Amino acid sequence: MTESDPKACTAPGPLGSWREWATVSVNRKIFRAALSVAIMAGVVSVGMVVREITIAAWFGTSDALEAYLIAVLMPTYVINVVGSAFSSSVIPAFVHVREIEGREAAQRLFSHIMTLSALLLALVTLALGTSGWWLLPVIGSAFSAEKIELTRVLFYTVLPLIILNGLSQVWSSVLNARERFVLAAVAPIAEPLAVVAALLVVGDRWGIFALVSGSLVGCAIQMTVLATALRRHGMVLRPRWNGMDPGTRLVVHQYLVLLAGCLVQNSGLVIDQAMAAMLGPGSVAAINYGNKVVGALQTVGAMALGTAVMPYFSRLSAAGDLDGLRNVLSTYTKLILVTTVPVTIVLIAVSEPLVQLIFQRGAFTAADTELVAYVQAMFLIQLPFFTLGILGVRLLSARFRNFAVATIATVNAILKVGLNYILMSFMGVGGIALATSVVYMASLAMVFAVVIRDGRSRGARSAMIAGR
User: Any residues with CB less than 8 A from the CB of 279 and at least 6 apart, and which?
Assistant: First the structure.
């Protein structure tokens, strides 16, 4: 029985009533999917919080932790770029091919995606590995020679994360395209649990390398879970290549456009960490800790909604249902504003007690709490703007307007560097966090300007055709 099976709506009791309500309209289907993803993402976020609490107690804002954060920075950047670009290019194309050409064509497209993604991830890992010897001293410009050497060793140890996480991102995208949201959302819990276990078991002996080993083992478990889920749903994971068919060309074209945008858009973390390293010891760690609560809220809220809405936007777009797209956009814009604005105000007001509750123990001191709370408050400002921006970007991607998305991302990165320099000069590390929030405000304005312009131009064309 699937989610679209009408028999599922006639089950007796509260569960049947919920299913009946949740399948009446596209908006309700999206709400049901978003709620499921949000619950699972909440579970993962709890695991991430436990992970960060354990790391904070073990390492505080020490040199070892800052070396790890810089070492993992570029692999994380690559993973985010690959994952973001694949998610936004694969899902619309996969849904389009499945709806128009059938399951066999969708499987063929998936096999081609597997071939291309495996090759891309291997090449990127190799390229990054050969550039690490000169790249790391540039990013960690204020690090001592001993600290840079530790960073270099950690960097080469974490490089396999690119392949493990990259394939997991691709497989999660395909599960989401098939509207199998729950397992894709909860599978990342493996990494924080493995990190906590590694620190508790071998942390005393391995130090910071226990953190690395936990990440590698957890990501391998996550990949195994996703692979098993895809096989159970009839997907063949073996890479194959039958030539550049129309579906594959569509994915490649959209991916290349999005890749350019994602390379720039996801550079924000690299820019922040590199510029924070200029401000002295503890600043890199403060940026890292200060973004944890915000990141968890984005995962539970914005990313859960973005994950749920993407297949439905893609389906409505493939059907040419512009009224349906407008209805979904309007409904969830109102919902986002009603929920995120009050939450943002409350969290900013309690930023310091929240940091104290979560992190202040072990090597994490009261002085660390004060600095991280300041950074966190500046990051929190972005929540309403980021969430609305995700909704708009998913709509543009579903309409294959990824060139506009890439252009906006490029403007964001340029604005980010300029604002960082200006604000950090008199606000310190908190200025970097505030710059991020301001960039998301500007990004939202640009995204919705494109959405509104597209809606008006398409409406004018429809009126012209109707007049004829």
Answer: 424, 428, 429
